[in-house]
Design a protein that fits this description.
The complex is a heterotrimer of chains A (about 350), B (about 230) and C (about 290).
Chain A: H1 2-27, H2 29-38, E1 54-58, E2 66-72, E3 75-86, E4 97-103, H3 119-133, H4 153-160, E5 183-185, E6 189-201, H5 206-220, E7 222-223, E8 225-228, E9 235-238, E10 244-245, E11 253-260, E12 265-268, H6 272-277, E13 280-287, E14 294-299, H7 308-340
Parallel strand pairs in A: 4-6
Antiparallel strand pairs in A: 1-2, 2-3, 3-6, 5-6, 7-10, 8-9, 11-12, 11-13, 13-14
Helix pairs in contact in A: 1-2
Chain B: E1 2-3, E2 11-17, E3 20-31, E4 46-53, H1 67-89, E5 100-110, H2 115-129, E6 138-146, E7 151-154, H3 158-163, E8 166-173, E9 178-188, H4 190-227
Parallel strand pairs in B: 4-5
Antiparallel strand pairs in B: 1-2, 2-3, 3-5, 6-7, 6-8, 8-9
Helix pairs in contact in B: 1-2
Chain C: H1 7-18, E1 34-38, E2 46-52, E3 55-66, E4 77-84, H2 98-110, E5 120-122, E6 126-138, H3 143-156, E7 159-161, E8 163-167, E9 173-177, E10 184-186, E11 194-201, E12 204-207, H4 211-215, E13 219-225, E14 231-236, H5 244-278, H6 288-293
Parallel strand pairs in C: 4-6
Antiparallel strand pairs in C: 1-2, 2-3, 3-6, 5-6, 7-10, 8-9, 11-12, 11-13, 13-14
Classes of the chains: A alpha+beta (about 350), B alpha+beta (about 230), C alpha+beta (about 290).
InterPro entries (chain C): ExoRNase_PH_dom1 (IPR001247), ExoRNase_PH_dom2 (IPR015847), ExoRNase_PH_dom2_sf (IPR036345), Exosome_comp_Rrp42_subfam (IPR050590), PNPase/RNase_PH_dom_sf (IPR027408), Ribosomal_Su5_D2-typ_SF (IPR020568)
Organism (chain C): Capsaspora owczarzaki (strain ATCC 30864)
Keywords (chain C): Cytoplasm, Exosome
Chain lengths: ~350, ~230, ~290
């Protein structure tokens, strides 16, 4: 009897405490976080350096040429790729086109509303586009079609035109996709890839999820064989022909860290709540798939400055994280191919 | 079918019917922030719906929508959104939520036929998940009609839709047997239309049961999670 | 498009509908007489004005050469816009701008089944685009029906110049549009349907509702019926529910009323044509009433 009474009293007290914690969080959100962080813990139970559970599923959609769904915790980003035939632009007769877009429909979070894409979406689109095509279109990134309005192949020509064809052998100039591979007949026919990432649920760190989804979908992409009709010169699909899979010279992934309370704390993989309160963020993109891991981008859009040591620490954490992402992709692709057989 | 798929929304749901995949989120009841929303006083809540179509949603043989067709596609989406809102309007107890707006956001991830019906069903689930008071769950179903053979195809795919002479979508409030939305485009005779609507109704009744089960099981699931620390 | 009616007015109307005797003496399925004047806007390819009760709709049709829809390269196409005149809402305030787009898309949908292969000039490249611009001068109930009647009358009145296609020898095509007013083609409008709107009041449905009746209708169904009695579009736009059995009855009466309306429109147009042939200089158009008065 007595023990039951004690248990009941305990549960009442617990409920009271919970309610108090809830109130405290609402009134002093920053202080609430500080108390957690000073114990090297976060309100969702993670340590400061821990990333949330991450999963990737390849080709969940039948309507796109390739697709991938990336989930980091609750955050989910779905990427779909549609491939179309287009005529290469005069400046770059040996290249195809890639149009990359990240959209945040109003559904995905309470703050995004109807209307033109937010700055966040535009900035992320531009970042992703830069990663996908790399320096190949370096001078075009300024005009890269970050507007989500569907651009026709003709339009995207103008978006990516205006650059000299750089030396494709220059490894540093490459993005995830080698534009040379998208060319079918030089100066006449090429592929135009529309890479669209849609954020289905934004619970923080959509950058990492978006890049994971995009890389996953690009790996799943199989382009059908194209034959030119000799008489009319019109292209047609050849279902029996060899379909091609892109070689993809690189597979970079991203790891984002949030700077909290000035730069007192560095939190890996911030949630939406943490993002709303953070004083700055840094995204590190690196490729560990080859023998020599390469650092691609350190993206730090403003906010409080970050010391060189802290940055170095972030980078080493990021490389560890990116190794796990790389393993995740390989495992997913392997299970996909065994399922196919 | 599942609910609670968007973490920040008051209610959300995901519906998958083979290739057709729809996700809906409900935000609200919340302050009406749309243009003109704050100026006027509303005794009833305003039910607003917005539809976004993922660029890769339509089947792969479709050409990407050019800028020319873009405006008409936007108009079609608006029409689609109005249809979803009308179907649900009569069943949501708007008078309970004065001065506020209930915003429904639908994202069509994949469209392999019957996207309108799927969106309505998904929104119903999301509204229920958000705990918004409703008179009943509205369930919708669509059929394709073939005029020359007098055949009614249940729940058509995109291919069947494009070959049919007409497509009908009907939303039904099952418990009091009221049609809240009806939409048929394409040619058909009276007899065939009636047959189509009867088919839609019986599908709606089946769906109603399924959706109830989904809600109950998701509720049980959630309670289990809450009880466990 | 609703009026604020008192409960007594609403009950009165509902009782009338239940007794199959509406406040203006009509049965539930009676249509009011309507007037049609066609060809009254001189710089269009075709035009018509239809008046039903106080509702007054003017439709102008303009044919221009443009590019065909890529999905249907061998057909011409329609473009429909609907505008409310700023004075049209004399008796009622409009809900929102949606009404215009809804009307336009409803009309566009009824025209989907029309075969426009006669309007193709060069397959995949050039065709006639038929711009249908409707102006609602006075909206006093039953706008959908009146609009669809006016569109059909205007299309019947439309004349499209013949075009000659010639090859200039370099693989390019040249178009020559005939400027002879008699060297024209008419549109085949047999497949153009009319919309019949059914309003549910109490446990019954009525056709051709007045604005008062519309204001107390629980729900409305728009049905497009063509001359064969087939449905080209059925849509229920308003929020309220409707019982399936009542819906079936409504479809049945829509079919009858629609076919009747079409034949009536046909007869009216023929009559107008005959009158015009007999008295070519008779006064028509907007100032008719004024002129006959002075």
């Amino acid at each position: 009897m007595a023990s039951e009474a004690v248990a009941a009293a305990d549960s009442v007290e617990l409920a009271q405490l919970q309610r108090d914690a809830e109130t405290f969080k609402r009134v002093h959100p920053l202080e609430y976080y500080r108390r957690f962080l000073s114990q090297q813990l976060r309100p969702d139970g993670r340590g400061l350096e821990r990333f949330r559970d991450t999963s990737l599923s390849i080709n969940p959609l039948a309507t796109a040429h390739a697709s991938a769904l990336a989930k980091i915790g609750q955050t989910s980003v779905l990427c779909g790729i549609k491939a179309e035939l287009a005529v290469p632009s005069l400046q770059t007769p040996g290249w195809g086109f890639v149009v990359t877009n990240v959209t945040f429909p109003p559904m995905c979070s309470a703050s995004s509303r109807l209307g033109p894409p937010s700055e966040q979406a535009q900035a992320l689109s531009r970042l992703m586009h830069g990663l996908v095509v790399g320096k190949q279109a370096a001078s075009s990134t300024a005009t890269a079609p970050s507007v989500p309005a569907p651009t026709t192949p003709l339009k995207s020509q103008s978006a990516q035109a205006g650059m000299a064809e750089s030396n494709p052998a220059d490894a540093g100039a490459r993005g995830i996709v080698d534009l040379n591979e998208l060319c079918i007949t030089r100066g006449e026919l090429c592929w135009c890839l529309y890479v669209d990432a849609v954020c289905l649920d934004d619970a923080g760190n959509s950058t990492d999820a978006a890049l994971l989804a995009i890389v996953g979908a690009l790996h799943a992409l199989v382009l059908p064989a194209v034959t030119l009709d000799a008489a009319s010169g019109k292209p047609g699909f050849n279902p029996s022909g060899n379909s091609t899979q892109l070689t993809l010279p690189a597979t970079p992934f991203a790891a984002t860290f949030s700077l909290f309370d000035g730069n007192a704390f560095t939190l890996a993989d911030p949630t939406a709540e943490e993002e709303a309160m953070q004083s700055g963020a840094v995204t590190i993109v690196a490729d560990v798939s080859s023998e020599n891991p390469t650092l691609w981008t350190v993206h730090k859009p403003g906010g409080t400055p970050l010391s060189a040591t802290a940055l170095r620490q972030c980078i080493s954490q990021a490389v560890e994280r990116i190794k796990t992402l790389d393993a995740l992709l390989q495992a997913e692709l392997a299970s996909q191919s065994t399922a196919m057989e | 079918m599942s609910t609670g798929t968007v973490s920040h929304a008051n209610g959300s749901a995901y519906l998958e019917l083979a290739g057709t995949r729809v996700m809906a989120a409900v935000y609200g009841p919340r302050e009406n922030t749309r243009a003109g929303g704050l100026q006027q006083f509303n005794e009833q809540a305003v039910l607003q719906c917005d539809v976004a179509r993922a660029p890769f949603a339509s089947p792969r043989d479709d050409a990407r929508i050019g800028t020319d067709a873009n405006t008409s596609a936007a108009a079609a989406d608006r029409q689609f959104a109005t249809s979803v809102a009308t179907a649900l309007q009569s069943s949501v107890r708007l008078e309970k939520y004065a001065k506020s707006s209930i915003d429904l956001f639908v994202t069509i991830i994949g469209d392999d036929g019957g996207a309108l019906a799927a969106s309505i069903n998904c929104c119903t689930l999301a509204l229920a998940d958000a705990g918004i008071e409703m008179n009943d769950m509205v369930t919708a179903a669509s059929v394709a009609l073939a005029a020359n053979t007098n055949i009614v195809l249940w729940d058509p795919t995109h291919l069947e839709e494009s070959r049919a002479s007409a497509i009908a979508t009907q939303a039904l409030r099952v418990s009091d047997n009221l049609v809240t939305l009806l939409d048929q485009s394409g040619e058909s005779s009276l007899k065939l239309s009636v047959k189509a609507l009867e088919a839609c109704s019986s599908m709606s009744v089946q769906l109603h049961g399924l959706m109830q089960q989904t809600l109950v099981s998701s509720l049980l699931e959630r309670r289990k999670q809450q009880l466990l620390p | 498009m609703t009026l604020a009616l008192s409960r007594f007015e609403q009950e009165d109307i509902a009782a009338g509908v239940a007794a199959n005797l509406r406040s203006d003496g009509r049965l539930r399925t009676d249509y009011r007489p309507f007037t049609v004047e066609s060809g009254i806007v001189s710089n269009t390819s075709g035009s018509a004005r239809v008046r039903l009760g106080l509702t007054d709709v003017l439709v102008g049709v303009k044919a221009e050469i443009g590019e065909p829809d890529q999905a249907k390269p061998t057909q011409g196409r329609f473009e429909v816009t609907v505008d409310f005149s700023s004075t049209s809402a004399s008796a009622a305030a409009f809900d929102d701008d949606n009404t215009e787009t809804e009307l336009a898309s409803a009309i566009a949908r009824t025209l989907k089944g029309v075969d426009l292969s006669a309007l193709c000039i060069v397959p995949g490249e050039q065709c006639w685009v038929i711009y249908i611009d409707a102006l609602i001068l006075v909206a006093a109930g039953n706008a959908y029906d009146v609009l669809s009647l006016a569109v059909r009358a205007a299309l019947a009145n439309t004349r499209i110049p013949k075009v000659e296609v010639s090859d200039d020898g370099h693989g390019r095509v040249e178009l020559e549009v005939s400027d002879d007013p008699h060297h024209v083609t008419e549109l085949d409008i047999r497949a153009v349907p009319v919309i019949v709107t059914l309003s549910k009041i109490g446990a019954f449905h009525i056709v051709d509702a007045t604005i008062e009746e519309e204001s107390c209708a629980k729900s409305r169904v728009h049905v497009a019926v063509d001359s064969k009695g087939a449905f080209c579009m059925v849509t229920k736009a308003s929020a309220g529910g409707i019982e399936p059995q009542l819906l079936f009855d409504a479809l049945e009466s829509a079919k009858q009323v629609g076919q009747h309306l079409l034949s009536q429109l046909e007869a009216t147009l023929k009559q107008e044509e005959r009158a015009l042939a007999m008295f070519p200089n008779s006064q028509r158009g907007f100032l008719t009433d004024l002129q006959s008065a002075t």
